[in-house]
Amino acid sequence: MHFFFVFKKKNHYEKVSPHLISNTSDLLKSSSQCSFMSCSQTFSELIPSTSFDMHTPKPTQNDVIFPNLSTLPGGYSMVEFALKNFHVPSNPRKRRRIQHPIQSPLLRHGPNDINRTVRQAFIAIMRFMGDHAMSRGQTDVDCLYYLLKHMNKNRALIDEIMCQIIKQLTDNKSAKQDSMQLGWKLLAIVLNYFIPSENLRPYFIKYLNDNIIQNEKLVQLCLNHYEQTLKYGGRKNMPSKVEIDLLAASGRHGGKRQIFLLPGGVPLTLKTTPSTVIADCLNLACEQLHMSNSLEYDEYSIFIISTSENPSRLLNPSEYLFDILSECVESKMTDYYLIIKRMLWFNIPMTFDNNDNSEMFIDFMYHQLVPELFEGTMIAIKDNHISDDLMRQLALMAALYYRASNKIGLPSMREVKHLLPATVLKSKNIRPQVWTTTVHEELYSSVEAMTIMEAKLKFLTVIQTSSLFGVTFFPAQSVDDASIRSPCIIGISKNGILFLDTDTRETLFSIPYNDVVSIRRRQNAIDVKYGSLNQPRHIQCQVDRAQDLVALAGRYLSFIGRSLASALERKTDSQQFHRPGSTSCNDPISTIL
Predict the structure, then answer these.
(1) What torsion, rounded to 10 degrees, do the Cα atoms 292, 293, 294, 298 define?
(2) Around Cβ 128, how many Cβ atoms within 10 Å?
(3) DSSP-assigned states of every residue in 353-373
(4) How far apart are CA 579 and CA 582, in angstroms?
(5) CB atoms near residue 136 (< 10 Å)
(6) 158-216 pLDDT, tens per residue?
(7) Rounded CA gap, 112 and 109, in Å?
(8) Under CATH, to which class is 356-463 assigned?
């Protein structure tokens, strides 16, 4: 999907001399064939122009995103921008044609102490494009690194260097055949990290759109990188020399194949680029897994874990993958893995297509849920008694797991013990021989004749019928509510917050999200306010993984808010989202602090 930005256009522009317009047009031409002026006078006497800040801009309310590229309104040409913001000669007849880089900044609103940096930046651009000879031992990687380093160090240079690159791309008549392609490649790389200020932005986008026919692939890449940086803020870390070398060598295909691990240790290889964020990785993964419901994409997350003492971390969807990888290199962490897991269980029950395209997704879900079955976290045992129906269900899943493991024959009594959930084994009335017989009966009846994939698919179908399926559990040491036995288990699901008995998983108390006023984390504790907004009730819990609990609850609230807001928008664009059960407008994510 492509985007462009529409800006309000002024009703009129000041009249200027045709000679000045001609001069400024020359300023935009490539230095391989344009005129350069050595003068200090500017347009300040002729065209009033307020100063503007140059910085890495963020999206504003004036930026309107549309799903398709189209032509911007009339005006906003780079010549128009140059008239207002470039240094120009006082006398067009005093111009002299030279073949050297610029000696002063193009923009007249920047700092006064950057002349040398500006000159060196322009030389770096020309060298990268092949329009200027490299110094001894210098490479295009060095040129690129110089530009990014100084743009990051001095944000006032962002617009200046953007304009310099555009200057070299305009009417480029370089003797080097690939000069233009190298220039667009350079701009695409830079846009991974920085975008123009709001002052330059509409002219910049107009320039890209005007050139998309001649250089469609590279200009479209520039637009894509621009949109990504505008949305996510750009890369946070300077690229390593290795990364820049990769970018410079491979251009628009610059990237790497990154391995992610699915539950069960199954590798999933995704093609990533320096502009890829974690949300992109998840979308690519879901597509490769042939998920039929795109609404489920937001229910997955990526963790980075290490076999050393480094703690595991849940990655934010807006983080840049290459920033994360560079941090691993800087911290000398080599034993890390990127793990994809399903975190939210909102769109359940799951549906599967029993075909070759679904096998990887079935394996994914199977290997994530099997450990949860054996831990017994989702098995609720009422009054310390296992009903016949529950016993039959658990025996069926044990038989399915045995078949999915490609075991031959019938499991022994000792093997059956390892096929049952931990909570069942703790039960006082467990009868090993009865369990073994029941598992054998399930194998005989239908399971033994299944293929491995059929057994996994049936396992996933059965486990979804568990009363606590889709609940994530957090051990709580204490709860300051006399009606809730401590210690207990806190469960987070799409329906709200559950307080469960540690051994039986019976529900002691529950708080639906409609009643949640706020959830706050205080070190290893959480404070939950619920009920009336004016007179809320309060529960404090001691939880080791308090941060993870609050983050997960926040994601559910955010997911619910987006779903409801989307439904409301379909009814009317003017409606605002209201938290369910509340009479005041309340963004659900704001309840998580």
Answers:
(1) -120
(2) 27
(3) --SGGGHHHHHHHHHHHHHHH
(4) 5
(5) 5
(6) 999 999 999 999 888 888 888 998 999 999 999 999 999 999 999 999 999 999 988 88
(7) 9
(8) mainly alpha
| Type of residue at 469 | F
User: What pLDDT is stored for residue 30 in this prediction?
Assistant: 62
* Average pLDDT over every residue of 235-259: 72
Query: Six-digit token pair at 22?
Result: 């001609």
Buried b (16+ CB within 10 A) or exposed e, 36-53: bbeeeebbeeebebeeee
Task: Evaluate whether the domain defined by 256-342 bears CATH number 3.40.50.170.
Answer: no
Q: What is the 3-state secondary structure (H, E, C) of 566-585?
A: HHHHHHCCCCCCECCCCCCE
Polymer length of the chain: 593
The rounded distance, in Å, linking the Cα atoms of 486 and 542 is 10
Tokens of 447: 């399971």
Say how far residue 188 (Cα) sits from the centre of its chain.
19
Residues 86 and 49: their CA atoms lie apart, in Å, by 11
Provide the angle, in degrees to the nearest 10, between the axes of the packed helices 359-375 and 452-463. Answer: 50
Amino acid at 445: S
Residue 88 is encoded by which pair of tokens? Answer: 């120009």
Cβ neighbors of 204 (< 8 A, separation 6 or more) are 162, 166, 196
Read off the pLDDT of residues 517-573 as tens digits, 9 standing for 90 and up: 999 998 889 999 999 889 999 999 999 889 889 999 999 988 887 766 555 554 444
Helix, strand, or coil (residue 134): coil
Assigned CATH topology for domain 4-252: 1.25.40
Could you give the C-alpha distances from 198 to 106, 114, 116, 154, in angstroms and in order? Answer: 17, 22, 26, 17
Contact between residue 397 and residue 371 where contact means Cβ atoms under 8 Å apart:
no
Q: Residue 561: CB partners within 8 Å, gap ≥ 6? A: 577, 579, 587, 588, 589
Boundaries of every domain in the chain: 4-252, 256-342, 356-463, 472-591
CA distances from 441 to 218, 390, 512, 534 (A): 64, 15, 40, 58
Residue 96 has pLDDT above 50, yes or no: no
Angle at which helices 140-153 and 241-250 cross, to 10°: 120
Structural fold of domain 472-591: PH-domain like (2.30.29)
What phi and psi, each to the nearest 5 degrees, are found at residue 83?
A: -60, -35
